[in-house]
Amino acid sequence: MNRLALLLACVLGVSGCGGAQDVGIATGANADTAARAPATAEEILQGRLRVAVRDLDKTLAVRALPAIGTVVGVAGRLPPEEIQRIVRTSFGRFRLCYEDGLRRDRNLRGRVIVNFTIDLDGSVSYVRPDGTEMPDALVTACVGRAVGGLVFPAPAGGIVTVTYPLVFNPGDDPPPESSPPAPVLAPPDPEGPWPIVVVDRRSIVVDGEVVGDVQGVIASGKLQKIDALFDALKSHRERWKAGHPGKRHPGVAGVRVGRDLPMLVFKSVFQTMAYAGSPHILVQPAEQPAVVLDLAARVPGPPGPDAGGYSADLVLQVQFFDSDLILDWKRGPTIVRTDRVPRAGTDLAKVLCDAWHRQVRRDQSDGLQDPLVLRSHHDLPFEEAAKVLRAVESCTRDVQLPGGQRVRRAAFWTMLSVH
Question: What is the DSSP code string of 127-143?
Fold first, then answer.
């Protein structure tokens, strides 16, 4: 891969907006501290990591995702035919989901497109089923859970991202199985402790061990994989799996950073954590330990021949430009609207929310969150990016769940483009 593009996906909770919050992790004043206030930043972050593991599948299920091709290698390599073999030999599990739907509607047919990530050990650390072509949402969710428990051969060199379509028709028979069904891993228990990376102006630390030189990263001027950090996180992951046989590792970790940390360092740390098998990362500002941003990393490779833009019709791209922010609404590669707003003295939360209502307007029964891409230059202080993320979290909308319950949900999930 010639160019690395890391996307930090940020699902932000509701801040001061009232109503029920059904996805993501509460930030700031919404943090659940009713039982007792944790004494340290470490306890706060570990508590949020446990919640992240518990709610991960529900959090990921409402994101409108970029389409990235049928089988796309990221940093790793795994033959497409091997991926297809595992999926085909597991089709009986997916068929059970569909047959359950046939009992509700004997004419049910459709397609579920499953986006998932194969982690370093072959487990599935991320799964997002797209059911826009499957009328039964319960079938879509069931297929997603089944894919999330699959185990593949360990990829060579890093994680692999896959988009796989599964078609269901009433008269179809499952494909013949030429080998035994693929094994399935059970969901993880939320108990930790989960790894936390601490970054200050001098050092990158994991479990009390210095694993990176911040000033060295700054001096290089380049986005980079930090080898000692990668090794430390990979070792932590291997120890967890050895102690939890048969369980699926959730790929969750935390990072604590100072407000003045250059985004070059933050992005280097984040991409390294993702490559080490932790694509779901909670970020805690060191000066505000009660504020925790729920982030997830996606590191797409070049699109395959079937790739075709975002599953969301529009994507909002926000980028820093001098003292302003540029807001570009894009449909595929085409910019359909551009706004320029000053960073100072602007109610950015209102600007973003007004833009969503003007451009998107999803129906209340459509609970998907729309993608927002934040672009930053390397020397921007983390604090400036965090201000935008906190503005995004206050843009919420009413969503009506299948049972009739109404909740407030963030309109956007945010990706930070890292390249």
Answer: EEEEEEE-S-HHHHHHH
Tens digit of each residue's pLDDT (9 = 90 or more) over 214-250: 999 999 999 999 999 999 998 998 888 888 887 878 8
Pairing of strands 252-257, 280-285: parallel
Mean confidence (pLDDT) of the chain? 79
What pLDDT, in 10s, does the model give residues 17-65?
333 345 443 333 344 434 455 579 999 999 999 998 888 777 766 776 5
Single-letter amino acid code for the residue at 279 = P
193 and 53 together in one domain: yes
Backbone angles phi, psi at 196, to 5 degrees: -125, 125
Question: Has residue 408 been placed in a domain?
Answer: no
The partner residues of 126 in beta bridges, in order of sequence, read 117
Cα–Cα distance for residue pair 274/8, rounded to 1 Å: 10
Q: Could you give the count of Cα atoms lying within 13 Å of 361 in the half-sphere of its Cβ?
A: 2
And the tokens for 404? 């009739």
User: In whole angstroms, what is the distance from residue 92 CA to residue 122 CA?
Assistant: 20
Q: Which residue shows structure tokens 């990362």?
A: 281
List, for residues 363-374, the tens digit of each pLDDT value.
888 888 888 888
Percent of the chain with pLDDT over 90: 28
> Is the preceding peptide bond at 305 cis, omega within 30 degrees of 0?
no
User: Is there a single domain that holds both residue 50 and residue 137?
Assistant: no
Range of the domain at 131: 71-168
Six-digit token string for 406:
């109404």
Helix axes 91-104 and 137-148, enclosed angle (nearest 10): 160
Alpha carbons 2 and 308: distance in angstroms, whole number: 20
Question: How far, in Å, CA of 73 to CA of 192, rounded?
Answer: 30
Total domains present in the chain = 2
Secondary element (H or E) of residue 216? helix 214-220
- Both 111 and 260 in one domain: the answer is no
**Residue 260 within a domain:** yes
pLDDT of 172 reads: 64
